[in-house]
UniProtKB/TrEMBL annotation:
It comes from the Bacteria. InterPro entries: AAA+_ATPase, ABC_transporter-like_ATP-bd, ABC_transporter-like_CS, P-loop_NTPase. GO terms for molecular function: ATP binding. SUPFAM superfamilies: P-loop containing nucleoside triphosphate hydrolases (SSF52540). Residues 5-234 form the ABC transporter domain. This is ABC transporter ATP-binding protein. Keywords: ATP-binding, Nucleotide-binding, Transport. SMART domains: AAA. Transmembrane segments: none annotated. Belongs to the ABC transporter superfamily.
């Protein structure tokens, strides 16, 4: 299968600073491709080169099988992007913003199609509200609607959850998954948050100081069976007893008033339901896998943990 994006030995220098060094990777149709790296790792610089916003110092970029530099206008018509925070007209309504950006892209969609775009990102009910009244999460979702207004094949999102509260992060995660699964878009998304990339990406790359540390399938690198599930419960003694016997037969650790079990990701909802049905109230549940440990094994050490987990 020919990649939608094919990057080969890409380098970007700013005077003496090497922001991206000898970077190669491929993105295929249908991927939700995660760019994972702390701030300053080279993620945004790479994405800007993919969009011809800055030029590489050396190396090559191919989009849809074509070299980017000589044909970038026709190629980029097939790409939608939100880099950092979207630029929107704050004192116009959402649908007015969409209409203006559509015309800038050379398309004149009907009112119905514009409303469909807003429905896709969960903003149809606020179509006639001024953007100045929107929350940051709503602005981010409107920015994605703008990026989709010309129906691109490839969507590039740079740190789309920055500045969002937990509900906004969940909404953005669900929107990205919907773009991939329902609308068959190929999505490239960058983040410094380990858990976000793990939950949405099918394939990923880890960057550190402008260099590729790994690239591959999330499922292959981070096996669900290695998950440690941390449970906060109202009755730990009863929960331990239930988890140790059939149908679960789990080994249970107790740490800082949390129960810890090893469990595959797909079994977590069933475990949650089982404990609730048995009268054990779940106060918290979180899954911790080997992603953090794997990242630390590739990069320069523990000083990166805070940047990736906060």
């Amino acid at each position: 299968m020919q990649p939608l994006i094919e990057v080969n030995k890409l380098v970007k220098k700013f005077d003496t600073l090497v922001a991206v060094e000898n970077l190669s990777f491929s993105v295929y149709q249908g991927d939700v491709y995660g760019f994972l790296g702390q701030n300053g790792a080279g993620k945004s610089t790479t994405l800007r080169m993919l969009l011809s916003l800055i030029l590489p110092s050396s190396g090559s970029i191919r989009l849809f099988g074509e070299e980017l530099t000589p044909n970038h206008k026709s190629i980029l018509n097939r790409v939608g992007a939100v880099i950092e925070r979207p630029d929107l007209y704050k004192y116009l309504t959402a649908i007015e913003n969409l209409r203006i950006f559509a015309r800038m892209s050379g398309v004149r969609p009907s009112h119905r199609l514009l409303m469909d775009q807003l429905e896709m990102v969960g903003l149809a009910e606020r179509a006639n509200s001024k953007v100045a009244t929107y929350s940051q999460g709503m602005k981010q979702r409107l920015g994605i609607a703008v990026a989709l207004v010309h129906n691109p094949d490839l969507v590039i999102l740079d740190e789309p959850t920055n500045g969002l509260d937990p509900q906004g992060i969940a909404d953005m995660r669900n929107l990205i998954l919907r773009l991939s699964r329902e609308f068959q878009k190929t999505v490239v998304v960058s983040s410094h948050l380990l858990t976000e990339i793990e939950q949405i990406a099918t394939r990923m790359i880890i960057l550190d100081k402008g260099k590729k540390m790994m690239e591959g399938s999330v499922a292959d690198y981070f096996q669900p069976a290695s998950n440690k599930v941390h449970l906060g419960v109202t009755n730990p003694e009863k929960a331990i007893e239930l988890l140790k016997k059939e149908p679960w037969g789990l080994q249970v650790e107790l740490s800082r008033e949390e129960l810890i079990v090893s469990l595959a990701s797909h079994q977590v909802p069933a475990l949650n339901r089982y404990l609730v049905e048995q009268g054990v109230e779940i106060q918290s549940i979180r899954s911790v896998n080997s992603l953090e440990a794997y990242f630390l094994s590739l990069t320069s050490g523990n000083q990166h943990v805070a940047a990736f987990t906060n």
